[in-house]
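Technical annex, item 7. During the second reporting period the consortium partners agreed on a shared format for inverse folding records so that results from different sites could be compared directly. Each record opens with the tokenized structure and is followed by the designed sequence. A conforming record, contributed by the partner at site C, is shown below for reference.
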């Protein structure tokens, strides 16, 4: 019995060892021929690879970043033409104002001097007018010489010009012609909204503040129109022209778009950012949009046809962009391409592909791993 049991155990161990050493048939391995990968028939890898035929299609709109600013054609920054002290402030930010409305009142000896100059010029003119009439009458009777008449006429013209100058200066700045009150009123030169105020009661002001880059006393603008300042690149120049309508979008109104017309294109690139400034005029009659909002501008590509591939199909190695082409029958080739604009999850291919090529959209990483030991050929 013991001998029989030993024989049975030996047979079982031998059978198990033979089973463990039974080799499974290996999957066929792909061949690498230069930049081409060939999977033999029956290989499992091609089942996980997906491809898409490339076709010419309309180029999507170009999306550029920008921001909204005040329409400078309808915006004024107010400084004081006279030195003085702020007595009262009559307008606050956000307040609508009309043309000529008082914004602040200043006590200004300089303005009082302008009023005094106007009063003196009135007196001088009245005296010169009377003197000219007297000399002219004397000249008619042969009592006054012609030289005296000429002198009186010259003095009359001088005082008349000085009166006109001083009166118009007062009219320009809204001063009283009848009294000297040294009170200068800062008034709005246009109808709009106060968007900025930089003065306080009791503050001393001087005309040279504008030269020293001090902030203006008030900023008045008409917000019914805005400027969209758009940052474009060199390659976008062919799609932008004056008069073209672009679409403005903002995260504040995700379901709305706002048309704007390109009114100006900069003649130079910013040397630090390599961007080109483009200005578009935007209708804001409903006052939905606000100054300094960040926006995106969509510029139509004018029916340009391009080749687009999914972004996941393109990979970067050795300073070049590549895609894999499905040539059918388990054959895949790596091809160098030149990329252009990026449109969301799609990339424009400028060179290296033809319409009808089948680009691998899934499995590019696996194919690249097969070629990884090989250097990128240039």
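Designed sequence (site C submission):
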């Amino acid at each position: 019995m013991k001998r029989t049991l030993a024989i049975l155990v030996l047979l079982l161990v031998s059978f198990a060892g033979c089973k463990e050493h039974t080799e499974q048939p290996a999957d066929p391995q792909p061949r690498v021929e230069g930049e081409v990968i060939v999977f033999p028939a029956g290989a499992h890898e091609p089942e996980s690879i997906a491809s898409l035929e490339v076709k010419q299609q309309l180029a999507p709109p170009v999306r550029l970043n920008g921001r909204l600013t005040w329409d400078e054609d309808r915006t004024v920054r107010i400084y004081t033409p006279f030195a003085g002290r702020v007595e009262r402030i009559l307008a606050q930010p956000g307040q609508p104002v009309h043309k000529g409305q008082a914004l602040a009142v200043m006590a200004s000896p300089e303005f009082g001097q302008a009023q005094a100059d106007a009063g003196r010029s009135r007196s001088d003119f009245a005296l010169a007018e009377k003197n000219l009439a007297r000399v002219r009458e004397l000249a008619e009777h042969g009592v006054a010489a012609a030289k005296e008449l000429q002198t009186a006429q010259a003095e009359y013209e001088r005082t008349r010009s000085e009166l006109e100058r001083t009166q118009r200066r007062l009219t320009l700045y809204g001063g009283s012609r009848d009294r000297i009150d040294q009170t200068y009123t800062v008034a709005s030169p246009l109808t709009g909204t106060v968007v900025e105020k930089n003065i306080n009661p009791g503050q001393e002001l001087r005309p040279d503040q504008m030269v020293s880059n001090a902030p203006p006393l008030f900023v008045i603008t008409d917000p019914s129109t805005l400027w969209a300042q758009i940052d474009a690149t060199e390659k976008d120049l062919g799609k932008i022209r004056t008069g073209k309508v672009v679409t403005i979008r903002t995260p504040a109104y995700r379901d709305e778009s706002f048309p704007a017309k390109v009114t100006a294109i900069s003649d130079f690139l910013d040397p630090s950012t390599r961007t080109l400034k483009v200005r578009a005029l935007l209708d804001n009659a409903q006052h939905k949009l606000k100054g300094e909002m960040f926006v995106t501008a969509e510029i139509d590509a004018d029916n340009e046809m391009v080749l687009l591939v999914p972004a996941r199909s393109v990979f970067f190695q050795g300073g070049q962009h590549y895609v894999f082409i499905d040539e059918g029958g388990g054959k895949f080739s790596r091809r160098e391409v030149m990329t252009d604009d990026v449109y969301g999850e799609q990339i424009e291919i400028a060179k290296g592909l033809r319409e009808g090529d089948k680009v691998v959209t899934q499995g590019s990483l696996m194919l690249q791993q097969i070629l990884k030991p090989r250097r990128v050929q240039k």
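The domain at 31-59+305-371 is CATH 2.40.420.20 (conserved putative lor/sdh protein from methanococcus maripaludis s2 fold). The first strand starts at residue 31 and ends at 33. All partners now use this format for quarterly exchanges.
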